[in-house]
């Protein structure tokens, strides 16, 4: 059985991601694993002082994640197989350890689309997970509701497509949801058109031809805005993006299309490594 791992910090954004994941799991006949990773809070004075005992933190974490599980079982009328786990450690390390054990279909996480510190704190774990996990990460923006996935957008820059396109996973996702694939390429006045672009386009077509995708060439100065505007107008349900290692997130504040897309999109983003 497929499994979706859903890390939670009990915030409204993570609860919304959990509800989205639950509806998705029901749709694809998957189970859900709720994960809360807790850490020892330390007050930084001249001598670090722990405010609460580790045993108390563990108990609180286990109680809260069990409460989430119980509430979700009630809402789904017992139709969904739900597991809950509480762990001490670093969030991404614990997610990765779980992924290695159960090989999930995806990790589903929330993030905040607004600015300021709230966005930074809620988004940092999601960004770190995207950067370090080799498993797909689905990022659910605030307020997103799962209503099935009929149209999938694949954001592609038509660069090194054979090396970077996760065609097997794209095929799997499209088949799982019986969704139509739209290949999204954003350019402005052929700014990114290179001598090798026609060949790259042909190679991509060969990789994906059995899916009979629709190719959408979007004219826009800003890649993220172009994808978002098109996705909203065309009712795209999920956008797949590739966080390429040579371009993505060498530092938390480094600008990248994937990072911007994760924060700015109103549509869920699925990040898949090549």
Keywords:
ten-stranded mixed β-sheet; 42% helix; 274 residues; Rossmann fold; two-stranded antiparallel ribbon; 2 domains; alpha/beta; elongated
Task: Describe the protein in words.
The chain is α/β, with parallel strands linked by helices. It has two domains: 3-140, HUPs (Rossmann fold), CATH 3.40.50.620; 151-271, Rossmann fold (3-Layer(aba) Sandwich), CATH 3.40.50. Helices cover 42% and strands 22% of the residues. The protein has nine helices and twelve strands. A ten-stranded mixed β-sheet has the order 5-2-1-6-7-12-11-8-9-10, with helices on both faces. α3 (91-102) packs parallel to α4 (116-132) and α8 (223-233) packs across α9 (257-264). The longest helix has 22 residues, at 54-75.
Short summary of the structure?
The protein is of the alpha/beta class and 274 residues long.
Q: Low-confidence parts lasting 5 or more residues at pLDDT below 50?
A: 113-122, 245-255
Which series of helices and strands comes N to C?
A: EHEEEHEHEHEEHHEHEHEHE
Number of helices: 9
**Would you count the extended β strands for me?**
12
Class inferred from helices and paired strands? alpha/beta
At the first level of CATH, what is the class of the largest domain?
A: Alpha Beta
End-to-end span in angstroms?
A: 24 Å
Strand order, main sheet: write it out.
Answer: 5-2-1-6-7-12-11-8-9-10
The CATH superfamily of the largest domain appears as: HUPs
> What gyration radius follows from the Cα positions, in whole Å?
20 Å
- What average pLDDT do the residues reach? 83
Which architecture of the largest domain per CATH?
Answer: 3-Layer(aba) Sandwich
């Amino acid at each position: 059985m497929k499994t979706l791992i859903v890390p939670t910090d009990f915030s409204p954004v993570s609860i919304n991601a959990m509800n989205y994941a639950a509806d998705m799991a029901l749709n694809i006949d998957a189970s859900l694993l709720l994960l809360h990773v807790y850490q020892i809070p330390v007050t930084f004075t001249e001598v670090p002082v722990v405010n609460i005992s580790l045993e108390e933190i563990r108990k609180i974490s286990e109680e809260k994640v069990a409460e989430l599980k119980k509430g979700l079982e009630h809402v789904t009328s017992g139709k969904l197989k739900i597991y809950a786990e509480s762990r001490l450690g670093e969030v991404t390390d614990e997610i990765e350890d779980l992924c290695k054990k159960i090989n999930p279909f995806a990790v589903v996480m929330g993030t905040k689309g607004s600015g300021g510190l709230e966005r930074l704190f809620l988004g940092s774990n999601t960004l770190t997970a995207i950067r370090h996990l080799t498993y797909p990460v689905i990022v659910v923006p605030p307020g997103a509701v799962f209503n099935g996935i009929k149209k999938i957008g694949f954001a592609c820059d038509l660069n090194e497509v054979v090396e970077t396109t996760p065609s097997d996973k794209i095929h799997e996702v499209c088949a799982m949801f019986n969704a139509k694939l739209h290949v999204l390429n954003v350019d402005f006045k052929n700014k990114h058109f290179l001598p090798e672009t026609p060949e790259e386009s042909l190679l991509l077509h060969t990789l994906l031809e059995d899916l009979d995708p629709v190719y959408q060439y979007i004219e826009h100065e800003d890649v993220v805005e172009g994808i978002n505007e098109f996705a909203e107008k065309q009712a795209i349900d999920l956008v797949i993006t590739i966080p390429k290692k040579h371009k993505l997130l060498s530092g938390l504040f480094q600008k990248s299309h994937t990072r911007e897309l994760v924060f700015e999109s109103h549509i869920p983003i699925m990040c898949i490594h090549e």
